[in-house]
Amino acid sequence: MDAGGDGATGATNRKAPSAAAAGSNPKGKGKGKGKGKATSNSKASATAKESSLLKQKSPAEFFAENKNIAGFDNPGKSLYTTMRELVENALDSAESISVIPDIEITLEEITKNKFNTMIGLVDRDRIDEELYDDFESIKAREKRLAKEARFQETQAKNAALGKKVKEAPAARGKGRGEAAFFRVTCKDNGRGMPHDDIPNMLGRVLSGTKYGLRQTRGKFGLGAKMALIWSKMSTGLPIEIKSSMKEQNFISFCRLDIDIHKNVPHIHLHEKRENKDHWHGAEIQVIIEGNWTTHRSKILHYMRQMAVITPYAQFLFKFLSDSVDKNLTIQFARRTDVMPPIPLQTKHHPSAVDLLLIKRLITETTKQNLLQFLQHEFVNISKSHAERLIGEMGPDFSAKMTVKSLTSQQLVRIHQLFRQAKFDDPSGNCLSPAGEYNLRLGIIKELHPDLVATHASSPQVFEGHPFIVEAGISIGGKDVKHGLNIFRYANRIPLLFEQGADVITRTALKRINWSSYKINQQQDKIGVFVSIVSTKIPFKGTGKEYIGDDITEISSAVQSALKQCCLQLKSKIVKKLQARERQDRKRNLNRYIPDVARAIMDTLGEIADETPPKRPRYDKEDEELLEKVNSQEVTEMTFRDCLTQHVEQVDYEMALEYAMQSGVSDEPREAIYLNSLEGSYKFIDFQSPLFVFRFVP
Amino acid sequence: MSEKKRRAGAGAAAGGSASKKPRVSSAASYAESLRSKLRPDASILATLRALASACSKSEPAGASSSSKALAEDDPAANYIVVADQDSASVTSRINRLVLAAARSILSGRGFSFAVPSRASSNQVYLPDLDRIVLVRRESARPFANVATARKATITARVLSLVHAVLRRGIHVTKRDLFYTDVKLFGDQAQSDAVLDDVSCMLGCTRSSLHVVASEKGVVVGRLTFADDGDRIDCTRMGVGGKAIPPNIDRVSGIESDALFILLVEKDAAFMRLAEDRFYNRFPCIILTAKGQPDVATRLFLRRLKVELKLPVLALVDSDPYGLKILSVYMCGSKNMSYDSANLTTPDIKWLGVRPSDLDKYRVPEQCRLPMTDHDIKVGKEMLEEDFVKQNEGWVKELEMMLRTRQKAEIQALSSFGFQYLTEVYLPLKLQQEDWI
User: Fold this and answer.
1) CA nearest B55: which of B216, B261, B209?
2) What are phi and psi of A252, to 5 degrees?
3) Range of B128's domain?
4) What is the gyration radius of the CA atoms in chain B, in angstroms?
5) Which of the listed residues B212, B244, B270 is the one where a domain comes to its end?
6) Residue B365 pLDDT more than 90?
7) Higher pLDDT residue, A299 or A34?
8) B79, B125, B179, B321: the active-site residue
9) pTM of the entire predicted model
10) Which terminus of chain A has a smaller tally of CB atoms within 10 A, N or C?
11) Which ipTM was obtained for this model?
12) What residues of chain A have any CB closer than 8 angstroms to a CB in chain B?
C-alpha cells in the first residue's frame, strides 16, 4: 500500500466492523451449512418477530448471499473469478478504443500477520489453547512425539547404514481458520473511466456500460463489483482505482467500498492526481481472501487460454509471496497487432424479442409511428415488409398510428405475429470473432504444435441471435498432454469449469471419428480449440461456464467446423506419414533380407541335394544355378548382397521420385510479427541498395 | 403373455394343488402331448428309408451336375479352382517358383511373387455351381516395397518350410509351421493367411501342402472307416465321438448302414445324441464341428456324402449364425473360396431348430432370447444372400425370425426335459418329414 493508504486504512477500520457485520451476517451463518439454510434461518427469525414485516433486498445483497451465481463459490474460486473479471474488463476497455491491450496482473500473497498489521489489528497470542480447532491434546502430542522419535531413530539407522535418507514428512497442514489473503492488481492501457463516474461504475451492482445487444465479454455489470463485494465479505478492505482517460492531464484516484444494503458506492477518497507520462487506462486493486494452492493451475490455464484467443494482447502475470521459490512471473508476449473489430451494437431480431422488450423499445424509441418503429428498431424488416406486417395485424392497426399509443392487447398481437411470421436470418456482421488468423497465431504461440489447422464457419442463427463458430485443431506441442486437450471459448473468454456437459467437449469426444483422419485419440497430443461468438451465448447453469449440448444448431456447427479442421490436417498427416515411411523404408526392407536369403538358400540347397535323376527337368539356367549352389559359388551371402544392392537402388529411385513429387517445400509462409522496440537506441546502420540492417550494440 | 401365465400359475399354485400341475406347465404338457403323436419307430424308419433311397437314386443326377462343374473348365480360366495333387508335383512347382526368385535376385532385380488376391470383393457366389468361388486376379508381391516386403518374406519362408515338409513326407499342423519362425511370422493369423496364399499360388489344396489344422470336428454313429490303416468303428467311440482326422488322405474304406447324416451345430446337442445312442434307434451318422466348421470337417462331410450318398439333415440354432454355419457347409466360406469345389456339400436339409418350431413346440418365453441389433443386421444381410434366396422355405423362416425378433438355441428344447430332443423332437420331425 502506498503512503496515502495508511490514513485510509484507519478510516476503513472504523467503518469496517459495521459494514462487514452487515455484509457477512448471512454468510457467517451459512458457512459450512449452505446458503439455503442461511436464508431460511433469517426468514424464520423474521416470521417469529414480526410476521407482517415485508423485507426488500438490494441487488448487492442478493449477490452477496448468492455469490456462487457469479463464480465466488469458495476462496479459491473467488480468487480465480476476481482475476478473470478484472482481466476481461481490461481487455474490453482497451479494445473499445482500438488500442492493443497491454495488461499486467499481480497477485500478492499477504500472510495473516501482515494482513493484521495492515488493518491495524494487533496480533494476539493464544491464551486458551483448547479453544482452537487445531489444539493438540496431551495424548495426541505424546503419540506424535513418539512417532517423530521413531522416525528419527530409523532415520539415524539408515544414515548409519549409508542408505538414502527419506524426507521428513510434511509439517501438519494449515488449520481451518488459517485464511490466505491476496492483493489482486490489474493494470491496463484501455479507455479508463470518467472521473465522476468511477464510484457508480464500480460501487453499484448491475450498473454497466455493456448493456444492449452486442457481443461483449461481460454482460451483467457484475464482475468487478462482485470482486468488491467479496473483498468486503472476506477482508473488509476497500477497492482502489486509478484511472485516466486519453488526453486527460490528471489521474483519478478513488478508494471506495460498497454499501451492500443500499447498493450504492461508499467513497473513502476521490481525488485527482498528476499524470506526468500521459498514461491512460485503469488500475484496480482489491484485497480478498483466496486460495492459491487449489486454484493455481486454473488461474495459469486461464491465462494461457486467454493468450491463445487474444494473441494481440500482452499479458504480464506475476505472483508474489514471502517465500521466493513460490514466486512466479509469466509473460505472454504479443504476436500480432491485428485486432478483431469492435463488435457493433445491433438491433433486435423480431423473432428474438419478448413482450417486455417490445414495451421497452417503445418507450425508448424516437420514432413516431408504427411503420417507422418496425422499420428502424428491428433488423431484417424493410419498409414494404413492415407494411405487410401491419396489414396482417388487423384493422386496429395502421402504419401512421403513434407507436406510444399502442394498448397492451395490441402489443400482444404484435408479439404473436413476430413469433409466427417469417423473417430473414440476422447477419453475422455485428459479431467480432477472433479470426482464423489470430486463433492460429495464438495456438502456435502458446502451444508450439507440430501441425495446426483452423476453420471459421459462416454465421448461423439460433433463436434470432447470430453466432459464429471458429475451430482450431493442433497436433503435438509443448506442455500438452496425450489425448484430447479441449479449449473452449465463448465470446472470446476461456471457459474452464463444467467441461463435461459442454457441447464442445461432447462433440469432440463423441461425434468426431478421429481415427478416420489418421489421428490417434489416445496417443496423439491433440489440442481442440473452439470459439463461439454470439450476441447471446446460450449458457447453461448459473455460472456462465458451459453451453448445453441440446442445441442442434450449435452442436452441428461445432461438429462441421472441427471436421473441416480434421480434413485439413489429414492431408498434412498423410504427407508426414509418407515422409516417415520414406525414411524407414530402407531400414524396413533391410530387416527382412536375412530371412529371405535363408529361406531361398534352404530350398535351393535341398533341390541341389537331390540326385539328378530324381530331379525333374529344369531349363539350362536353372541347372547352372544349381551347379553354382553345389559348388558353393552361390551362397546365402550372395543373396544377401544382391538384395542389399537392390534395396539401395530402389530406395534411391523412390527418394528421387518423392522429391520430384513433393517439390521443395509447400508449407505456406507465415508473416512474423516483430515487437517494436521501446525506448531509444543508438543504431549502427548497415546500408545496402535494397535494405538496411540496424544493429543495436 | 407368458409372464401373465406364470403369474396366473403362481396364483393357482397358492390356491389349490388340484389344478396346479396342468396349469403351471401348460406349454410343457403340450410338449408332452406331442409324444403321443409319435408313431412306432418302425414306421419312422420306413420314411427314412424312403428318403435314403430317393437320395441315392437322385445321386446320378447330382453326380452329373458335379461332373458338369468339373467338365466346364471354361470358368476355371476366370476362377481359381485348386485340386489335390501329389507331393512330387507340388514340390516341383515350389522348386520352379524358388528357382525363378533366386535367379531374379542374382540378376539384381530383387524378387516378386504373383499372388492371387483373396480379398472379399474377389469372392463371388455362382448360382450355377451353388457355391462361392474365387475370381482369378493376381497381384504382385514385390520385396522392394515397404507395404509388401514383409508378406513377400513370409511367403518365401512358408514356401521353403512347405518344401521341407513335403520332402520328408510328413504332415505338420498350422501351429507347427507358425512355431518354426515365430519371430518372423509374428502371430499365427499371418502365417495361416500366407499358407492360403501359397495354396492359391500353387493351385493345390491345403492338404496337398501337408499342412493341417488341429482336430476340431467329431463324429459318432453307424460308420466305420480306416484312419491311417487303423479300423475305426464309430459306434464304439463312447460319448465323445471320434475326432475327424485333419488330413482326409488318411481316411479310407468308408462303410455305413446309416440312413442319413445328422449335422449338429453344437457340442452339447452332439453329446446328448451320442449318450442317448440316437444312432441306434434311427441308424445315422452324427457329426459336429463345434461351431463354425473347419476345413477337415467339411472335407469329411463331403466325402461321406459323395461315397455313401446319404441325405444330410442339419440341426442348428434358430438364429442367423445357425444359418450362416449351414451356408458354410453348403456353399463354402469366403476364406477358402479357392477350394470350394472340394469343401462344399450342397443339398443339406434344414431340419431344425427353425423359427417356426418355436411356436409349433410352444418353446416357453424364458428360453427365447431377443435378437440384438447385430443379430438383426446379420439376419437382414443373410436375406440378401443368393443361397438363401434360392430356397423359398428358408426365406420364409428367416423372415419370420426377423419379424418376431426372437432367437433360440437348440438347448431351448431342454426346458421340456433334457432328453426331449432325442425322445420327442427329432423323432417327430423325422416322422413328419419336417425339413426344408
Assistant:
1) B261
2) -80, 135
3) 78-212
4) 25
5) B212
6) no
7) A299
8) B179
9) 0.58
10) C
11) 0.74
12) 581, 584-585, 588-589, 592, 595-596, 599-600, 602-604, 606-607, 616, 618, 621-622, 625-626, 634, 638-639, 642-643, 645-647, 649-650
